[in-house]
Design a protein that fits this description.
The strands form three sheets. This protein has a nine-stranded mixed sheet, sandwiched between helices. It has a three-stranded antiparallel sheet with strand order 12-14-13. Strands 1-2 form a two-stranded antiparallel sheet. Helix content is about 40%, strand content about 15%. It has 19 helices and 14 strands.
């Protein structure tokens, strides 16, 4: 670490009468901690215990001062708050005055703590606390009586002993009768058709460019109160409050899309969107949880409470773990869910799909642990059918809702960027078009196997086998086709023998 420019600090507790720097003068430290400093000191047991000396086994006052100043920087305390802690510490009975040289090195610890916190927030692995700080200072006399490793070991031993004084508490367990009568959160269905529950987790997966972000924006607007066709097909139980983190596209592009989707509708009061002016990572390498980012997420949820649903788009921008490693992914996904669960918020993550065969549903790429982490998964896939671009949305996994018998067929309005559920049979293969095709290409009669008929309809109209069967059934119900039974002809009514005899 480069030498610290001491003049950068506005408030420094200089040792009175310091002969090394007689030209330096500075105002005294503040009379008390700032409000934030007081809250952090009360909540951070490691910082408080090191500073108030309830955590023992630091070989000297200088090592202890170095440690709690580092912790102050890591916890985000200002330089003024750090100097107040130093002044109060060295003002205690029996303490020596803080010499100029030691002061410089102690303040470097504060700066190092700030650097470590910033790296951790950016998603890098958290480094060992005292050892790395001493290594960066590059001075053996920073700890005159003990090595950094000894100080760190003593500190950890003290922490273990302090924990050992407390009685071990059992997990909370209730008899079945009391459990059934208890009031628990988490059973409320937010979107019943897909199984999205309070505190639950869902995935929306699709290949790149298949419209997953647009579909998610449609749902965000619809579930927060705007009249959106896709949200009518997947209705929320009530108007939700949603916190959205779109972290892939530039915020200006998200803004442009949102304006089109909303049209003349008033922006919903219950939708809060991330500005993307800073990176967001909930894990570093090897899936190590980014504790500071998780704390910030918790603070954000509290600031806009109550939040029903948190949307993250896409998963790949939230971490630096290996997606094919279940251990690395679960290492940070589990604490992410816990942060949201504590405030009753569900999670819906947009995720890129892996390869899928033609006609198959897209599934989220990477480890199966990602899909196991979620309660449900919606798979979206763009398909060109009979010259028209349609989208297939299917519920490929759900824990708390009935499985869908049929997938939704969606069509995107390029002007409004709104998805709308459409009747695939009526869109691709309406009965009238089917009858005309049979009349023109097959003289109004199909005498071959029905499986061959459905295959021919699929090829001609670019539809699925299910749609082909549905089109034939509708034509028969409408009286447009006459079915003489299995292994017998299927005829257009105008060519039926009964009609000709009349």
């Amino acid at each position: 670490m480069a030498d610290l420019e001491l003049s950068d600090f506005d408030v420094i507790p200089w040792t009175p009468g310091d002969e090394d720097r007689p030209d330096i003068t500075a105002p005294p430290p503040p009379e008390q901690l700032s409000g934030r400093g007081q809250r952090v000191l009360a909540a951070n047991a490691r910082l408080r215990g090191t500073w108030d000396e309830t955590l023992n086994h630091y070989p000297s006052d200088s090592e202890r001062a170095y440690a709690f100043t580092f912790y102050a920087g890591e916890a985000g305390l200002s330089c003024e708050d750090a100097t107040w802690l130093l002044r109060e510490f060295y003002s205690r009975s029996g303490k020596k005055q803080l010499h100029q040289t030691k002061l410089a090195k102690t303040l470097r610890a504060w700066a190092k703590g700030r650097e470590v916190a910033e790296r951790e927030e950016a998603g890098h692995p958290k480094e060992t606390v005292v050892e790395q700080a001493v290594e960066d200072v590059g001075s053996e006399d920073a700890f005159p009586t003990e090595t950094a490793t000894q100080a760190k070991t003593a500190h950890e031993g003290d922490t273990r002993r302090a924990k050992g004084k407390n009685t071990v508490q059992p997990f909370e367990v209730l008899p079945a009768a009391e459990f059934l009568q208890a009031d628990f959160a988490g059973a409320t269905r937010l979107v019943e058709r897909v199984g999205l529950t309070e505190c639950g987790v869902g995935l929306l997966t699709a290949a790149g460019g298949d419209g997953k972000s647009l579909a998610m924006q449609n749902l965000e607007c619809g579930w927060t109160g705007v009249n959106i066709p896709l949200a009518e097909a997947l209705p929320a139980a009530r108007r939700l409050r949603i916190l959205g983190f779109q972290v892939e596209n530039a915020p200006g592009m998200e803004q442009e899309r949102l304006r089109k989707i909303l049209g003349t509708a008033r922006p919903p009061d219950g939708l809060f969107l991330f500005t993307r002016k800073e990176p967001i990572r909930f894990s570093g390498a090897k899936g190590r949880p980014n504790e500071r980012a998780l704390e910030r997420l918790s603070a954000t949820l509290a600031a806009h409470a109550p939040i029903d649903l948190v949307v993250f788009d896409p998963l790949v921008y939230l971490h630096e773990a290996e997606e094919n490693s279940s251990s690395e992914m679960m290492r940070w996904l589990v604490p992410l869910r816990e942060v949201c669960r504590r405030v009753g918020a569900a999670i819906l993550v947009v995720h890129h799909a892996g390869w899928a065969g033609d006609g198959d549903d897209a599934r989220g790429r990477g480890s199966t642990a990602i899909r196991a982490w979620a309660d449900f998964e919606l798979a979206l896939r763009a398909q060109t059918r009979n010259g028209r671009e349609l989208y297939r949305l299917n519920l490929v996994k759900t824990n708390f809702a009935p499985r869908w018998k049929e997938a939704l067929t969606l069509e995107l309005n390029e002007q409004t960027l709104r998805f709308q559920a459409v009747d695939e049979t009526g869109t691709l293969c309406p009965p009238d078009a089917l009858v005309v095709w049979l009349e023109e290409d097959h003289n109004g009669t199909w005498a071959g196997p029905r499986a061959d008929l459905y295959a021919a309809i699929e090829k001609r109209f670019g539809c699925s086998e299910r749609t082909a069967k549905d089109a034939v059934s509708r034509a028969k119900v409408d009286g447009r086709l006459k079915d003489y039974g299995q292994r017998k002809p299927l005829e257009v009514v105008a060519y039926s023998p009964e009609l000709n005899r009349e």
